[in-house]
Amino acid sequence: MPAAKVVVVTGASSGFGAMSVRALADSDHTVYAGMRDVGGHNADAARDLETQAGDLRALELDVQDDDAVAAAVNEVLARSGRIDVIVHNAGHMVLGPAEAFTPDQLAAVYDVNVLGAQRLNRAALPAMREQAAGLLVWVGSSSTRGGCPPFLGPYFAAKAAEDALAVSYAGELIRYGIDTTIVVPGAFTSGTNHFANAGTPDDAERDRAYDAEYGQLRRELPDRLGSLVPADAEAGEVADVIARVVDLPRSERPFRIHVDPSHDGSEIVCAVGDRIRTDFFHRVGIADLLPAFPSL
User: Fold this and answer.
1) What confidence score (pLDDT) does residue 70 get?
2) Are the CB atoms for 40 and 17 separated by under 8 Å?
3) Is the separation of the CB atoms in 268 and 143 below 8 Å?
4) CB atoms within 10 A of CB 126
5) Which residue spans within 49-177 are E strands per DSSP?
6) What is the pLDDT of residues 273-292, one digit of tens each?
7) Rounded to whole angstroms, how far apart are CA atoms 278 and 289?
8) Cα 152 to the chain's mean position, in Å?
9) What are the pLDDT digits (tens) for 227-263?
10) Are 89 and 246 contacting, i.e. CB atoms less than 8 angstroms apart?
11) Are 95 and 44 in contact, with CB atoms under 8 Å apart?
């Protein structure tokens, strides 16, 4: 049996995060389910965790607040003495013409999907580096490099930035014994509420300006994407993959793993990019910074 680990998961009130904390708890890990407003908006989600088997604990964690992130990390360290795994799952999807989103809205999407991970890393990595062991799991999106349908631009741009950040961190942390795995889900159009809870543009006038040429396509797009997903595809597959990666020994953890039943092509593009980076690292003489196990 793999050793039990202390795991922090962000965005755990719903979607992939909620599924992942349960899968990890089922694998006998101590799991902190990070979410905002545990005593208010997410009180029901937090209480629901108490009905689950295993060591599963709700954690007040707002990835957009420096002080809240630091407090959450200090709480985990005080209660459990260490952090072995961080699952960077918190994210927010938006739907609409890129032009119709204000710069502030675009910045807010980056704040959740990219800066939130940076805040948590800065708070937790000193302890993890001192342990000389750990794992960062980043939950990305296949459409940043695969089919990349329109009207999701701010979300895809943020997810692409998150991926680039994860790749850089991988090389900077490996000598401290901290591994990196990037989990790349496809466009699951059901089971996560991502589309149902997606944000919309603040500039309604510019949003409407796209109706003449793209109105019908925008209305049909979720169904078109959904038609690519096999009927038996389950969003819970992403949570199961995360739990399996956490349980793997260091030498077997994949650097990148796709969970994309629609096969939008991201795995092909990523495989080329990862191979080019591998060749480049060998040429520069820093091959020891590469992961032990290739992408899947």
Assistant:
1) 98
2) no
3) no
4) 11
5) 56-60, 85-88, 134-139
6) 999 999 999 999 999 999 98
7) 9
8) 17
9) 888 877 788 999 999 999 999 998 899 999 999 988 8
10) no
11) no
What size, in residues, is the chain?
296
Exposure string over 56-83, b if 16+ CB within 10 A, otherwise e? bbbbbbbbeeeebbebbbeebeeebeeb
Structure tokens at 75: 């709480």
Cα–Cα distance measured from residue 20 to residue 23, given in angstroms and rounded to the nearest whole number: 5
Q: In this structure, what token pair is assigned to residue 49?
A: 């965790």
pLDDT, tens digit, for every residue of 67-110? 999 999 999 999 999 999 999 999 988 999 999 999 999 999 99
Give the integer Cα–Cα distance in Å for 219 and 292: 44
Q: Which one is catalytic: 32, 155, 169, 210?
A: 155
With a CB cutoff of 8 Å and minimum separation 6, the contacts of 132 are 176, 177
Instruction: Decide if 104 contacts 154 (C-beta within 8 A).
Output: no
Instruction: Report the alpha-carbon distance of residue 98 to residue 168 in Å, rounded.
Output: 27
Span 117-140, pLDDT tens digits: 999 999 999 999 999 999 999 999
Domain 6-289: which CATH class?
alpha beta
CA atoms of 132 and 65, how far apart (whole Å): 27
The residue ranges of every structural domain in the chain are 6-289
Question: What tokens were used for 138?
Answer: 């980043």
* Residue 214 falls in the annotated catalytic set: no
CB 267 within 8 A of CB 186: no
CA distance 161 to 110: 8
